[in-house]
Amino acid sequence: MRPSGREADQLRPLKITRNFTKHAEGSVLIECGDTKVICTATVVHGVPRFLKGKGQGWITAEYGMLPRSTHSRVDREAARGKQTGRTVEIQRLIGRSLRAAVNLKKLGENTITIDCDVIQADGGTRTASITGGFVALADAMRVLVENKKIKENPITSQIAAISVGVYKGVPVLDLDYPEDSNAETDMNVIMNDKGGFIEIQGTAEGEAFSDEHMMGMLAVARKGIAEIIEAQRAALFDKE
Amino acid sequence: MRPSGREADQLRPLKITRNFTKHAEGSVLIECGDTKVICTATVVHGVPRFLKGKGQGWITAEYGMLPRSTHSRVDREAARGKQTGRTVEIQRLIGRSLRAAVNLKKLGENTITIDCDVIQADGGTRTASITGGFVALADAMRVLVENKKIKENPITSQIAAISVGVYKGVPVLDLDYPEDSNAETDMNVIMNDKGGFIEIQGTAEGEAFSDEHMMGMLAVARKGIAEIIEAQRAALFDKE
Amino acid sequence: MRPSGREADQLRPLKITRNFTKHAEGSVLIECGDTKVICTATVVHGVPRFLKGKGQGWITAEYGMLPRSTHSRVDREAARGKQTGRTVEIQRLIGRSLRAAVNLKKLGENTITIDCDVIQADGGTRTASITGGFVALADAMRVLVENKKIKENPITSQIAAISVGVYKGVPVLDLDYPEDSNAETDMNVIMNDKGGFIEIQGTAEGEAFSDEHMMGMLAVARKGIAEIIEAQRAALFDKE
Amino acid sequence: MRPSGREADQLRPLKITRNFTKHAEGSVLIECGDTKVICTATVVHGVPRFLKGKGQGWITAEYGMLPRSTHSRVDREAARGKQTGRTVEIQRLIGRSLRAAVNLKKLGENTITIDCDVIQADGGTRTASITGGFVALADAMRVLVENKKIKENPITSQIAAISVGVYKGVPVLDLDYPEDSNAETDMNVIMNDKGGFIEIQGTAEGEAFSDEHMMGMLAVARKGIAEIIEAQRAALFDKE
Amino acid sequence: MRPSGREADQLRPLKITRNFTKHAEGSVLIECGDTKVICTATVVHGVPRFLKGKGQGWITAEYGMLPRSTHSRVDREAARGKQTGRTVEIQRLIGRSLRAAVNLKKLGENTITIDCDVIQADGGTRTASITGGFVALADAMRVLVENKKIKENPITSQIAAISVGVYKGVPVLDLDYPEDSNAETDMNVIMNDKGGFIEIQGTAEGEAFSDEHMMGMLAVARKGIAEIIEAQRAALFDKE
Amino acid sequence: MRPSGREADQLRPLKITRNFTKHAEGSVLIECGDTKVICTATVVHGVPRFLKGKGQGWITAEYGMLPRSTHSRVDREAARGKQTGRTVEIQRLIGRSLRAAVNLKKLGENTITIDCDVIQADGGTRTASITGGFVALADAMRVLVENKKIKENPITSQIAAISVGVYKGVPVLDLDYPEDSNAETDMNVIMNDKGGFIEIQGTAEGEAFSDEHMMGMLAVARKGIAEIIEAQRAALFDKE
């Protein structure tokens, strides 16, 4: 019934490749089916002005799409001289979500920038960015600890994200582009490894959605998040 | 227990003044406690380029804060030459929510712009903008029908919004600024008059939030939305 | 003979409301007939770079119109990313005029920003901004003195502004929009309470204007300014 | 008594060189003492959008200073990405003043752009731009008539501009930079060849100025304008 | 003697992967040692305004670096709101070079945009972009021919590029970052498959360079270009 | 055979006027035939951030064209809010070339900005800017030495630039606009007074160019540069 033939609660194949490029403190290629995003983590000593002297660090994120990562080419934002509203919204969401994974006091006066650049888009680029960005962030934290820049790893919980929706009346997990563009409702769910919610953003695309639909979407989201958390853990601990 | 002394599920005093300024097709001053927003609706014949020739209309929104609507002055975005990420995010939310109230086909090739300008801020400016913006939109639709620009009123449902949160462990309704800046979780809920969800955006501010908290927040939101829907109706039908 | 039925030298009803919003050090709603402007004064410790270490303060002004304060909606400057030439010109005039009211040495190293935001426009928004801005400025100065941030009130004179013009060959006072758009000449006059000129800007709109017209316009301006000075004084001293 | 040794009502040496560069329809170098401005007039068929289909033409102006035309270098506006408020104000004044010289109906659907670029600044660059810009405009009109693009020369009057001020208590004509930076009052006067006023902009620099000072400034302005009008005429008619 | 141990006239390992992403008409990953660039070609029907109605097509290029493609992170140009001078210079060079490969008349009124996005930088990103961009362009042309949008393949010659330099007094081929940042002279050479020059840009980095050095650099460039031309051909014809 | 009737290796009349304007430390009008550029040098104490504390100075350049310096008016970059790619490319070339003339250590922590503003364009404006810019730079260095801001003149060599090209199959020197727009190849050559190359930028305009053409262009360039070097020397040493 789904265009991809998947079960309603089935994720797309998920692949997380660490050390994808060589310069960044953390560098991850995340592939969720045909969606491919490079997530890098850059550590810089110092904090933005509004945090000066507060004895804490900062996590921020930036997001971009290569102009031809999509079906038809989108304008290069650098050439337009302006990020779109969608980009701004997404990078704020990524930053907010990843800050929830970290004790900023333990990070000291360091700033970590997570860059999420979409190489190929097929739905779910923002949730892939959060999931992959967490792995890059975790790698950067290890570098900080190994280099004795900080004493203790400031990661307090693991963060993962997934999109869910209502497609032909059924709650489904991990929408790809053909589903995303036809779903009645679209919801991004960001959770931690203890099952707590970090952020929920649900939007009715045509009809309003009911309590029942929301409960159904949350149920498939919970299943998907558990699998993604597992995949992150495997990438971070088993594969090195 | 709340700084304002309100009950956990009690709204702030809500006042909706129509025809607040004289030029716009719809012009509303909405006051939610000390939060005051001017919402105007402007009708222009024609549609944006991406809708040309599709035989439908468009609803869009813009949001701004007077520089000294807040405790300390914020930079004037027109002088900075750029809207902040927060502004962009809010005006996209307002536009999306209000489009859910309208049959765009019945609107014909007309564009309605909802301008929400915050005169005084005390928490909840984005939800006040949606609630007040709906009333301005409804007035503009009446003008279109009265002037025979369209045959039928394209409003399909009534839309209202409210913020809820978890404050000192308790789900509370309609956060003011002192609560908003100390809440553990903050959630904006936009619903229609049939009890369907249009949009939900919940964000953990420190700790992740639980299912139980979410259910609690949705419960107070539902109560608040019902009262706001009533107040909008009173403003639109009884008071004229 | 005037569209409004006023005498040639008659002001529109003038209303000055202090403490209009709650956060600013000075906050004034000025209403000149249907023209309504919110003027706030914000005090910040410190001065712009070009005044660093000179032992003096600074007064600056910013001006904006709500997009639908006018007959047809004007683009939101924050969204366009640029203030129009008209806006720039007006806010420079407001700042220059209000600096003439103040001994900047006595202000110490403080900067006061006057924000003038037009809620509803019906001609004369720039002169209303100066007149209302002066009252907001005076309130901010009182706050500075009361809080012992400065020893002495730095206000040296009272400043008021009015537009005059030649309409159907006759010099008239305080042009509203229908007159303004049809006047042969338009002149903004800013004066102090001792009858001295702070700034004069007269523009022929079609025909050049003669000495005689100028003398006539100055005469009605002088009468109007005297009444406005009185109204400011009443607002500042009697009504509190 | 004046730094330059001039009489109170004496102009600086004024030199107008036509055909200064070879590409423009009108190209003038105007030298007022050490102030040197290149004024070119460019004719393009067509009008700005707001005039489409109204059967009239348009005159607009742009102003710039070479970065090192002044004592200390000013930022190049093209590199900053923004014109300063002062520039915007000046180019609006030039455009408005020159439009007063022209019957725009007779110009047909043509747009003339006057570019005023200051090569060397020593006070009075905006009035030099208007005076020189008029000559460039007149040359462009002749080209249009000679090339039979229009039937009749649309110039209706001759426009000239001068700055006057109060320096050490005395009204003086044509301020150079040392005077300009010390004058108590500064006034720009734009008039036509029939003695009518096109625009007056007077600004008190410290003290307010009196009626008497204004009358004194207008008297010297009138004398100066008459001489400038004569010089323009000589340049346009005798020297070719 | 070279940091990499290569011979003076030895290229880095060169790998060209076609069909790297799935949406673009041409999509190439080019790897020159550790320098990795994604080059995509996008075909759009229509031409820029300055070519309307001339019966020809257009090739243009855009270039960007992922923020952490380099040793230390560079600002995201989309966030700064401006492309750097270096970026502008590079993308103009890429566009100019690739237009030399094409008969624009035969392309018809189509525009091809080559996007070159650097994933990992280690010297020579602009020449890699040209070499890889040509392959993406060639693929896009095949698509146009296969889809019968044009009759004949408009490619007239094969274009490749390489950097050469003088390092420790010796002309060397294909500088990597450690060489590039220490070379006395740096020259980019773009040639076609007939041995003709398309563009040469040589810059002395400290000392001026001599005729002898130039001849030496051209000699190694010629050898390198021949090998690159061969590699492009293999990628385009043999591997499919 | 050349449109101007010149020999293949003949320069246009070259005129260098020092002290062209009065404020700058160096101010030169350079005229190469009908191409006229004002080059000024401004000295400011201090260096850009990336050189702080390195005990050296900096040379930078900016370039602009008056809007009507060309056949048809180009947009004023200050009004567009953006410099074109061409402008950025040119000003980077001028700065790079002139830095090659200077020992930046001996300059101390001073920054010299060379402003090149084209008054009239007829081909070769970038090379004229470099040639004239060098003379302005040399004058500024003398001022620094005379005012004892630095001990020793930091100029290490003389820099000059010329364009050459292949026109109707023949290598020619110093292209004017009619040649430039029809040349098959266009090459800018920047050399010092010892015959070393500072920068070479050659571009094929239609056909690729051969070794033989390159050798021919370099030969005429060498002849032209020698004459220009002589003219700079005459301007700097003989004429004062």
UniProtKB/TrEMBL annotation, chains A, B, C, D, E, F:
InterPro entries in UniProt: ExoRNase_PH_dom1, ExoRNase_PH_dom2, ExoRNase_PH_dom2_sf, PNPase/RNase_PH_dom_sf, Ribosomal_Su5_D2-typ_SF, RNase_PH, RNase_PH_bac-type, RNase_PH_CS
- Give residue ranges for domain Exoribonuclease phosphorolytic: 10-140, 159-224
User: Which superkingdom, per the lineage?
Assistant: Bacteria
Residues at which phosphate binds: R86, G124, T125, R126
Q: Which reaction does it catalyse?
A: tRNA(n+1) + phosphate = tRNA(n) + a ribonucleoside 5'-diphosphate
- EC number from the UniProt entry: 2.7.7.56
Q: Which SUPFAM superfamilies match?
A: Ribonuclease PH domain 2-like, Ribosomal protein S5 domain 2-like
Kindly state which keywords UniProt assigns to this record, in alphabetical order: Nucleotidyltransferase, RNA-binding, rRNA processing, Transferase, tRNA processing, tRNA-binding
UniProt GO molecular function = 3'-5'-RNA exonuclease activity; tRNA binding; tRNA nucleotidyltransferase activity
Keyword hit for tRNA-binding: yes
GO BP, sorted A to Z:
rRNA 3'-end processing; rRNA catabolic process; tRNA processing
The broad enzyme category this protein falls into is: transferase
Query: Its quaternary structure?
Result: Homohexameric ring arranged as a trimer of dimers.
Looking up NCBIfam families in the UniProt record yields: RNasePH
Protein's recorded name: Ribonuclease PH
- Species whose genome carries this gene: Marinomonas rhizomae
